[in-house]
Amino acid sequence: MNIHLDNYTILIDKLDRFIRRYYINKVIRGSIYLISLIIVLFLVFSLLESQFYFNKTIRKIIFYGFIFTSF
Q1: Under a CB-based contact definition with an 8 Å cutoff, are residues 69 and 34 in contact?
Q2: Which of 27, 29, 58, 67 is the most buried (most CB within 10 A)?
Q3: Sign of dihedral through CA atoms 53, 48, 42, 39?
Q4: Which of 18, 67, 71 is CA-nearest to residue 45?
Q5: Where are the alpha helices (DSSP H) in the chain?
Q6: Do residues 67 and 38 make contact, with C-beta atoms less than 8 angstroms apart?
Q7: Half-sphere exposure of 24 (CA within 13 A, CB side)
């Protein structure tokens, strides 16, 4: 009976480690995607501003849009 209990706890421990690694990988991947999206948006908005020289209102809209999108 003790052998089955030990095997069961080993199995549960292995499953627990697998689940933790799985979700940690998901968090890391999501963080990389989020940081990449923010950098790409920043580059796009900066490129648009440098090419078209928007007026004050449009720049304000772009700035707050970037902040809103980042959060």
Answers
A1: no
A2: 58
A3: negative
A4: 67
A5: 2-52, 56-70
A6: no
A7: 6
Query: What are the CA-CA distances from residue 55 to residues 13, 24, 46, 62 (Å)?
Result: 60, 44, 14, 11
DSSP reduced 3-state for 71: coil
Q: Do 70 and 41 form a contact (C-beta atoms < 8 A)?
A: yes
- Residue bearing tokens 């796009």: 44
- How far are the Cα atoms of 1, 12, 51 from residue 9, in angstroms, in the given order? 13, 5, 63
Q: Is the pTM of this model over 0.90?
A: no
Residue 37: phi, psi to the nearest 5?
Answer: -65, -45
CB 66 within 8 A of CB 45: yes
Could you report the per-residue pLDDT of 8-26, keeping only the tens digit for each? 899 999 999 999 999 999 9
